[in-house]
């Protein structure tokens, strides 16, 4: 199997109908196993991530995953790219965790008779079997986020995109999610406000005001972001 490749070809996003630019032209090729994206709120991080699996299409330019254009081959792209949202309740829609995993497995055309056992196997693989028959509304934030990751990973996507997966978590569950991400075989592209998490990437992008203002080694990216934030603060340089 070839290495994951995500290509942004001058991909630009504008808000309609006013035409305000949300993401200025992005020219990137992402092949690293772990890619972190950091930047202020509203800078364009989530917009960039949503382009990767076709949740959002570029206003101009294009995005391709393994050579598949997200605009013309969106369904195939989404079979290859799993997306985890910041708020797990936005994707945990069934009465129990087991049923959420079973629902996800339906996209692989697995017979109904086999889905229940396979769902149990998936939950066990992530250490979540004890949550199988509980409502997501009865779970902690960390349990919900881990369950949402399991639901997405159940169909074995080649790429995982995670939008601030640790933002709502306490220190213990933050560590659990980061450990899970670190152990995955998939290529992972994630946004985060946790700079320690950003340092665990192989490559980190800094986005500000819809532009990629730094792209490189995580320590340098974090230093750039700290300087950016310090300069913007009252009294900053």
From TrEMBL:
N-terminal signal peptide: none
UniProt-listed Pfam families: ABC_tran (PF00005)
UniProt entry keywords in alphabetical sequence: ATP-binding, Nucleotide-binding, Transport
Ranges of residues in domain ABC transporter: 8-234
MF-aspect GO terms: ATP binding; ATP hydrolysis activity; ATPase-coupled transmembrane transporter activity
Keyword Transcription belongs to the record: no
UniProt superkingdom: Bacteria
InterPro entries cross-referenced by the UniProt entry: AAA+_ATPase, ABC_transporter-like_ATP-bd, ABC_transporter-like_CS, ABC_transpr_CbiO/EcfA_su, ECF_ABC_transporter_ATP-bd, P-loop_NTPase
CC terms in the record's Gene Ontology section: ATP-binding cassette (ABC) transporter complex
Annotated family: Belongs to the ABC transporter superfamily.
Name of the protein this chain belongs to: ABC transporter ATP-binding protein
Organism: Arthrobacter echini
Organism lineage string: Bacteria, Bacillati, Actinomycetota, Actinomycetes, Micrococcales
């Amino acid at each position: 199997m070839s290495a994951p490749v995500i290509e942004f070809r001058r991909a630009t996003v504008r808000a309609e109908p006013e035409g305000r630019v949300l993401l200025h032209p992005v020219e990137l090729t992402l092949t690293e196993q772990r890619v972190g994206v950091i930047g202020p709120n509203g800078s364009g991080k989530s917009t960039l991530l949503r382009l990767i699996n076709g949740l959002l299409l570029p206003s101009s330019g294009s995005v391709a995953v393994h050579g598949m254009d997200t605009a013309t081959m969106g369904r195939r792209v989404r079979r290859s790219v799993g997306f985890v949202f910041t708020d797990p309740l936005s994707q945990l829609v069934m009465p129990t965790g087991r049923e959420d995993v079973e629902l996800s497995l339906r996209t692989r055309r697995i017979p109904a008779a086999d889905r229940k056992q396979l769902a149990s196997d998936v939950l066990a693989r992530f250490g979540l079997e004890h949550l199988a028959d509980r409502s997501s509304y009865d779970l902690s934030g960390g349990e919900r986020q881990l369950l949402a990751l399991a639901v997405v990973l159940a169909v074995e996507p080649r790429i995982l995109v995670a939008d601030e997966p640790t933002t709502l978590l306490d220190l213990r569950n933050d560590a659990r999610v980061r450990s899970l991400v670190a152990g995955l075989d998939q290529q992972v592209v994630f946004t985060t406000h946790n700079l320690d998490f950003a340092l665990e990437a192989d490559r980190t992008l800094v986005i500000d005001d819809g532009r990629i203002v730094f792209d490189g080694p995580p320590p340098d990216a974090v230093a750039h972001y700290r300087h950016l934030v310090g300069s913007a603060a009252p009294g900053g340089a």
